[in-house]
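[Backbone geometry]
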Amino acid sequence: MCSLVKELRLRSRRTSCSGTPSPNYRFECYTVHTATITEEARLGQHVTEEARLGETRLRVGLRWITLDYVIALNLKTVCFGKERRISDALQTVILNVALPCLLDLFPVLHKRPPAVGEYQKDGEDPSDQVMQLVLTHMEMEHKIALRRSYARYLPSLQERLGMRVVRHMKRLLRVIVGYLEVCDGPEETTRLCILETLQGTIKYAWPRIPHRLPLLLKALLKLMYDVTCEPVQTPEPVTEALLCGATECLLLLDRCCDGQVKAALKGVPSLCAEPRLVKCLAAVQQDS
């Protein structure tokens, strides 16, 4: 990375001396710039991989010199900075490298819970800040590759938050419903990850779920109808995985809503005779 920066400075000096940039100057700066960003992300990956090995001294050292916060700040800048000069493909690579690093840093960055009567402002915890950034970008993102990258790490982020996911319920459910509506290719990576996120959200935030039951029930039934009745080129194992994930969500919803899902599904099998869909709904009805 240092050699890249030196190269960029050298080209800058050449430009200032001549007064006129070379025809390839902008392209050369772009190449150096994108390579530097990727190198920074991979450097963060190396540091967090070392921390993942369980080296207590490294974790204490990171805290002592506050290097953990510096690394996290730079990784957040790499992932969510307003940088428009990099391609979508490079942004996807950066997300796939930097987001796991941020997740691995959470145990180091996590603050102690506030004592009884002590005030702690919402959003101060780094994991909450990252969740806000991820959901904001997921809501606005329309490119399939980037949506897939965000969704791939959303279950892990939600698991790290645990019960604190209730702080983000409104925006998180908007993202879940919106992403369940869109097919992202034969592998359906996005939908599968979103279903996993929904299952974890129901488990951790179940007291808040009954008020959102109509919204979630409609989204899940629409997903199940799309993958069974609509003519799409989805492999059979992927279709089965989607149906299993959606059925598990329905079972969790029914358990935390005192049987309201079973009551709502009573007349649905008569409206659709697709065998796989009927089988999934029957599994929900027979659950005790």
Observations:
- The domain at 125-288 is CATH 1.25.10 (Leucine-rich Repeat Variant).
- Confidence is low (pLDDT under 50) at residues 1-37, 50-65.
- The chain has two domains: 1-109, 125-288.
